Amino acid sequence: MSYFDSVSLAPADPILSLTEAFKADANPDKINLSVGVFVDDNGVTPVLDTVKEAETRLLTNSKTKSYLPITGSPEYARLTQNLCFGSELAKQLRDQTVSLQTPGGTGALRVAADFIAKNLDTKTVWLSNPTWANHGGIFGSAGLQTESYTYFDNASLSLDYAAFIDAISKIPAGDVVVLHGCCHNPTGADLEPEQWEEVAKIAASKGWIPLVDFAYQGFGIDIDTDAAAARIIAKSGLPVFVCQSFSKNLGLYQDRVGALHVVTGDSAATEKVASQLKVSVRTNYSNPPAHGGGIVTTILSDETLTAKWHQEVAAMRGRIAGVRQQFVDALKAAGVSRDFSFLIKQKGMFSFTGLTKEQAMELREKHAIYIVNSGRINVAGITSANLERLVASLKSIIG
Ligand SMILES: Cc1ncc(COP(=O)(O)O)c(C=O)c1O
Known about the structure:
- There is one protein chain.
- This protein is an alpha/beta fold and 399 residues long.
- It has two domains: 14-47 and 305-398, Aspartate Aminotransferase, domain 1 (Alpha-Beta Complex), CATH 3.90.1150.10; 67-301, Type I PLP-dependent aspartate aminotransferase-like (Major domain) (Aspartate Aminotransferase, domain 2), CATH 3.40.640.
- The protein is built from 15 helices and 13 strands.
- The protein has helices at 14-24, 49-61, 74-85, 87-93, 104-119, 135-141, 161-168, 193-206, 228-235, 267-284, 291-300, 303-333, 342-345, 357-367, 387-398, and strands spanning 31-32, 97-102, 124-129, 145-150, 152-153, 158-159, 176-180, 209-214, 240-245, 258-263, 350-352, 369-370, 376-378.
- The protein has a seven-stranded mixed β-sheet with strand order 2-10-9-8-7-3-4, with helices on both faces. Strands 1-12 form a two-stranded parallel sheet. The protein has a two-stranded antiparallel ribbon with strand order 5-6.
- A hairpin with a 4-residue loop joins strand 5 (152-153) and strand 6 (158-159).
- Helix 2 (49-61) crosses helix 11.
- The chain is globular.
- The model has no long low-confidence stretch (mean pLDDT 96).
- The protein binds pyridoxal-5'-phosphate.
- Pyridoxal-5'-phosphate is lined by residues 36, 104-106, 132, 180, 185, 213, 215, 245, 247, 258.
């Protein structure tokens, strides 16, 4: 008899367990396209030069390790609002925006989920089908129910815009709808700015509340264009939650840096919303970690460092776009029977390849190539060293 007899074994995280299996694989030519981190052509997830410079400055100038406020640093809040909404709109919205420095994008999502569960009239959050594997767990853990709206057409491997519009037009007033700001994870299929305008109109007419999950700013087209969803929705006067992450675009994965911006659309409600968000933070992790936020603040408050960071983001984005093109060209040159040109149009690190679960398993078992069973690949995992073997293996499976 153990005090823990009542505890059952939780299912392993499907993506992280693939990483474990990859690590244990003895094949020297193994390829990992399942993880969610950027890697360079040497297969390394780099520390950005601007981050190193900011850390050097922080080390020299830091005077205290005392707690940050519950909401984090006010300067961080202002700078990340500017990055998210653009300085002009951020200024206009300042008195109706509550911003929190959070432990990563996940922390922002979890605080938003707690706030929604405890304070709004709805208990339902809508997620795209498919969506990031952690969304259901985060909202579910806060006691919310999740439903899904149609997003992707598995036949054409692209956004099913008509079905998406139809689905979000039927969502009841007051419910919360999670939208991927850019670089949709897992499909890589994004909306155009005009389409976001239509989404904002539908949200306004139906009365549901948008939540923009914004984890890949700068990985799609550029830092400003990628912010279209957050900016168009906020500008339209609607309330909106934006969950921002700096894990990918600053490579700060392990420092856990993000922000939650809640634009209330109503200055009178802002103080009450801020007070309840603080309760959620206080009872979860009390106040945010300072180091990663300090890096972001150091970079965004210095014009030269910001310009350098924009170049670093452009280089990461350029590598991903280049790899997409090389991969498609190499598949074509190898005479692979299926047309993969849709991969070029998709944005960000992830793509749905259309490969079946059986094909994903065959890739893993026969070729030591790790992709998610849904057929999702992390395009950034393709390098000059593994492209040829990857294409040959796919050819042997698909024909
Ligand atoms: C869609 C999406 N949202 C949020 C996150 C969370 O990022 P973070 O590592 O900052 O918690 C991720 C990370 O993979 C993501 O893909």
